[in-house]
Design goal:
globular, disordered N terminus
Amino acid sequence: MALAEPAATIDDGPSIPSSSDVAIAVNDASVVFGEDEEQVVALSHVTIDFRAGDLVTILGPSGCGKSTLLRLIADLVPAASGGVSVFGKSPSEARLSREFAFVFQDATLLPWRTAIDNVRLPLEVGGGGAIEQHASPEELLDLVGLKGRETALPRELSGGMRQRVAIARALICRPKILLMDEPFGALDEIKRDRLNVELLRIWRETGTTILFVTHSIPEAAFLGQKTLVLSAHPGRVLSYMDIDLPGERALSIRDSMEFVKITGHLRTLLEQAA
């Protein structure tokens, strides 16, 4: 049976918050890799604002520049043209002042350090400032549901637990922005679902602005307050839409007609984006 048309509350047009609410402003930014005939345009003239406190999921076909966009914001790749500001600072200034933290698909924990020592690591490198300015490692492991596993080594933790440690480590310097590049992509569906619920709880409790790259349409709809869809060859903004679901979400919401309509709409956009 054909699905109903997407609800009227779904807005494909760019959301333009007031300037006081903008955490990240991407202004006509392009990213190019290679030189001369070998050049590849990864992102082309992307303009988008991300509001402070939002959890934004980012969807798009493979090679559309989702990860490149996060790396551009994080000062890991340069813009060929245009620019980015993070709370009014350049990406390099924001990186030095620890405005953001990055969580990758691989937890990249040091195997010889315990969970709590892995969480402490950012405080030991790069000059993190006074210790009282940071959440305690113990509090953060409790926040991500690992109270009692402080002395466990990475090999003694499941994949989902290692990712929780990586999230706690990312939060240790209380970043205003958390950049997450398919952090749950390597996990099985059950672990992924549990971590989706945990991430929403952490987001509500910390108020951190989160940009979350995923290939999963249901994950994008379940987590996102907004979803950015990028088109490929080169990467461009196709849609920036509100996800009209309650802020408090349980996994059961995925059985609702509203969720089915939203995921169906996102699937249609992805077909256009390829």
